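Technical note accompanying the year-one report. For the benefit of new consortium partners, we illustrate the data format agreed upon in the data management plan: each record pairs a sequence with a structure-token string. No post-processing was applied to the example shown here.
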Amino acid sequence: MTRYKRKLTPKEIAALDDKDIDFSDIPELDEEFWKNAKLVEPDKTTPISFRVKDSVLEFFKAQGKGYQTRMNRVLETYVKSQQG
């Protein structure tokens, strides 16, 4: 088991042998854990087409990759605020 002085990249992590990975800070998943575990299904998305103002779209696109996800989060936050 080796400690690293810097954070490893995903590629470096994938190249490690299991014996070289430090699992000491990960708790064992015992019977108690599985007895109380609940399956959490991800909230699915549905592809749709709708119109937004150019200024709104450009604002989100200017923030980089993932703009549709950010737009969805804004809408989701609005919905939750309206539900009380």
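Partners are asked to follow this layout when depositing records. The mean pLDDT is 90.
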